[in-house]
Specification:
Shape: globular
Largest sheet: 7 strands, parallel
Distance between the termini: 65 Å
Radius of gyration: 26 Å
Structural class: alpha/beta
Strand content: 5-15%
Strand order of the largest sheet: 11-12-10-13-14-9-17
Number of helices: 26
Length: 625
DNA sequence: TAAGTTCCCGTTTTT
DNA sequence: CGGGAACTTA
């Protein structure tokens, strides 16, 4: 080994023995079971650096898949830190971003056009809502767009087609009918939903040898493996087929996305799927006090679905966990904010965690009252704001005129003299003539039953869109122009916040030369990706958002039956275990102290303290009434 | 027929 | 508190 390489490998000394083994075991399948705070991101980044430094692979031959953009960016940043700019060439991204890239290059192999639109949950639900009405199901109370969407996505993630959808009980048949029509519409709209991205990418990789060659990386690394769903798992299998060098890192005790299709069995059964897999456990915790670790360990031992692990730390013993009872949610907020104010620490040292978003409101009110600065992480997210979605809809239509969901949004915002009745007529006409809604706008003269005045509005809209489509300007400039010419700026008036959001959107567009690139990226972006810690602000977020983060002091709130565990999880033992894992994730975010609160009544209803509180070791706990 | 207004509903977690 | 349905106005 020459001295250059030896120097490059100095960083290995920063790893403990098991971390180092995980890094140095480069060939064959490796499962790393990584407890909270055990340095799993470190293992992943160092492994990438190691592969490159030892010349086992070029950056191009490595793919690192993560669950969030934030994790991906963080990984990339640390790789570059270790080995320099060469690290930029490593693909580090989410499964969905990876899939979108595969489809951009090879989508035509499975009939996907280059300019496809990605539908987010809301877009998809708008489509589903339409279908429900058309099929006459709008009075079936259970068949809400969100319910149906969820059912369909779960089916898609397991590659179940409408035809193969089983029909056991009541709404199955209806769901199947909607599912069938939903797929047809997506195709007409030249659009893919989240599950489609994974499904079609999988098909491309299976069916096209060229694509498989291009994307079969020599080394595959997967973060948060416990949260992968079936489709993601199948993609991994195809990718790993050739070289079989796959390292997955995860913790079954932190699997909290079952409701979104994550299959904990992917990690529990990894050794069955890859019989020659080496298993490494990272059990030394560098984050929390001994006390916190004991409490967390005791709690999670109530779960059955796990591999089990022995966490330990050389950190100090630490303070006992404090449980605080409140009268109601407002009293809870007061007591929580009291803790924060009296601790004499930076506000950024605290995280207030809750099960559901709506709980943030009471805390926000209290904080505003006392003039304490705070951030709500992942509340109503930037890209889900109405004005942002509207603006993006204009851009989407320009790239993909068949995207009817976006086109309708354009028609409605701001209002253009084309109302519900006319819209229905246009849609029906489109349906009958096998044309897209956009195609019909062009031929509006030929449609009967539409007043001339309204036809005028339609023609104006059509001409505007055509003009915008053929403008040869950069994306940011284009959007600015559209917002002006469509009357959007006027429409929102002096709503400062909306204006600011749109300005921000235009600013984010400036980094892009190509509208298509931008739209594909933006569809897979969320707010948490943007969040940066601020020492002077108190952090408020859900337990799901907090995964992967750590804070000196963590306050877990709303420990009440029906809220946490959430009432929807009470019937299924597996779902109850997931709630417990969520609690576990929350506790293990804390470095120094944990506070837990519950209210005796919430929203004027009496409630019972959470069963999870009885699962904490009483000798580690202080109660306060 | 479009668009503005009011009122009532519910609110898990999110790539 | 925002979104949507139902109602009102033009």
């Amino acid at each position: 080994m020459n001295s250059y390489v030896v120097h490059e490998l100095e960083f290995l000394k920063e790893l403990n023995p098991s971390q180092r083994t995980a890094v140095e075991l480069t060939e064959g399948p490796v499962l790393v079971i990584a407890g909270p705070g055990s340095g799993k991101t470190r293992v992943l980044t160092y492994k990438v650096a190691y592969l490159i430094a030892t010349k086992k692979a070029s950056p191009m031959q490595i793919v690192a898949l993560t669950f969030t953009n934030k994790a991906a960016n963080e990984m990339k940043r640390r790789i570059v830190e270790l080995i320099g700019v060469a690290g930029e060439a490593v693909f580090a991204g989410t499964f969905h971003a990876f899939a979108a890239r595969v489809l951009r290059m090879f989508g035509d192999k499975v009939g996907i056009e280059r300019n496809f639109t990605i539908y987010d949950e809301k877009d998809s639900q708008a489509l589903i809502k339409d279908i429900i009405e058309e099929l006459g199901y709008q009075h079936e109370r259970v068949l809400t767009p969100s319910y149906v969407y969820e059912r369909i996505e779960r089916l898609k993630e397991r590659f179940v087609t409408p035809e193969d959808t089983p029909m056991y009980e009541y709404p199955d048949r209806e769901v199947r009918n909607i599912y069938r029509e939903y797929n047809v519409r997506l195709q007409h709209n030249n659009a893919l939903d989240f599950a489609d991205l994974l499904f079609y990418a999988w098909r491309v990789l299976r069916e096209s040898e060229v694509a498989r060659e291009r994307f079969s990386k020599k080394y595959i690394l997967v973060d948060e493996y416990q949260d992968t769903n079936r489709a993601q798992y199948e993609i991994l299998k195809v990718l790993a087929q050739k070289y079989r060098n796959i390292t997955v890192v995860g913790d079954e005790d932190q699997s909290i996305y079952r409701w979104r299709g994550a299959d904990i069995h992917n990690i529990l059964d990894f050794e069955k799927d890859f019989p020659d897999a080496k298993v490494i456990r990272l059990e030394e915790n560098y984050r929390s006090t001994k006390r916190i670790l004991r409490v967390a360990t005791h709690l999670i031992s109530f779960n059955i679905l796990r591999k089990g692990k022995q966490l330990y730390t050389t950190n100090p013993e630490g303070d006992r966990v404090k449980i605080i009872e409140a009268y109601d949610e407002r009293d809870e907020a007061r007591k929580v904010v009291d803790i924060v104010e009296n601790a004499g620490r930076n506000l950024g040292d605290f995280a207030i965690l809750y099960r559901t978003h709506f709980q943030s409101r009471t805390f926000e009110e209290e904080l505003q009252r006392r003039g304490i600065p705070y951030v709500v992480v992942g509340g109503l997210r930037f890209y889900e704001r109405k004005e942002v979605k509207d603006a993006l809809a204009y851009l989407k239509v320009l790239v993909n005129p068949r995207d009817t969901v976006s086109l309708i949004r354009v028609i409605e915002n701001p209002p253009k003299g084309i109302g519900k009745v006319t819209l229905k007529k246009l849609q029906q006409y489109a349906e009958r003539h096998g044309n897209s809604l956009y195609g019909v706008l062009r031929e509006v003269e030929a449609i009967p039953d539409i007043p001339a005045r309204i036809k005028g509005h339609i023609i104006t809209l059509y001409q505007n869109i055509e003009r915008w489509r053929h403008l040869d300007v950069k994306p940011a400039e284009l959007l600015d122009k559209i917002l002006g010419e469509s009357g959007y700026w006027e429409w929102i008036g002096d709503d400062e916040e909306r204006i600011e959001n749109l300005r921000e959107l235009i600013a984010s567009l400036r980094e892009y030369e190509e509208l298509e690139d931008y739209l594909r990226t933006v569809a897979l972006f969320t707010d948490i990706d943007e969040w940066r810690s601020d020492r002077q602000k108190l952090n408020l977020m859900t337990l799901h958002s907090v995964k992967g983060l750590e804070f000196p002091i963590v306050i877990l709130t709303g420990l009440e039956e029906g809220l946490f565990p959430h009432y929807k999880s009470l019937n299924e033992p597996e779902e109850l275990e997931e709630e417990r894992r969520l609690f576990y994730v929350g506790i293990t975010r804390a470095k120094e102290r944990v506070y837990i609160t519950y209210a005796m009544s919430r929203r004027r209803r009496v409630c019972m303290r959470s069963r999870f509180l009885n699962e904490l070791p009483s000798e580690e706990i202080d109660f306060e009434w």
